[in-house]
Known about the structure:
mainly alpha; 2 strands
Amino acid sequence: MAQAAAVAKPPAPPRRRRASATPRRLPYLLIAPAALLMLGFIAYPVLSVFYYSLQDYNPTKPWRNGFAGFDNFVHAFTEDPLFWDTLVFSTKWVVVEVGLQLLFGLALALIVNQTFVGRSLGRAMVFSPWAVSGVLTSAIWVLLYNSQTGVTRYLADMGIGSYGTSWLSDPSTVFPAAIVADLWRGVPFFAILILADLQSVSKDLYEAAEVDGASRVKQFWHITLPHLKDAIVLSTLLRAVWEFNNVDLLYTLTGGGPAGETTTLPLYIANTSVDAHNFGYASALTTVAFVILLFCSIVYLRLSKFGGETK
């Protein structure tokens, strides 16, 4: 009987093993080296800029170094006219550049989105300037604007203008010349992002609109443009930040001249730190630029309702 009871007794359920915490922590352990590198190469420079913005720091004049408090900021807002001049020009540069790049980029995206012979080659030609570095772009346009071998020489040969004319040294032409040079590289950025979003628009919407008698203009205004809203908002915000921080092209083309006509705030910061070695004041200007960009970005995203539903 005892043996039969022992046989009939159901086996005890196996004990559940406690789940190991290692698999759950593994993703965090894998990204930890990259996170530490980002913390070291991004967080530390940012915090050091904030620290030096409160200091008088000039390696060439160490006897003047020390804590300055908010004196650098007070000097920028009340005693430095170049700060306001460069800030105004930076705003003008960003508005004109981003507006024209968006306009031409949207037009190019609509064109290369159509079906035609050689479309792949056309897309490659449109997007190729974006692959060129900023310094190389500047070198190309410096050669094109050269008064001896550039565009002005050939125009003078055709009787347009005079020999020896330099658009980059004339205050009346330097701004349009710099705008054209940066447009050449900036327009493909908008074309790439907008074209990628255009290809996700359902063709059924356009077919239904044609059945209802909607013109091409109405289709663009009520179908294409609302669909592109988030792509346009994101691309304009990113490009505005990049254009505001643009240093390489203007530095190579004009050096901020003539007579400071093309000096942006970041270029002024670079000259203050690298040439004048006034790193404390340059850090204060960098902090001001950071706050301006952060505030404008937040306001722009709020006003544009980025990520919200399009009515």
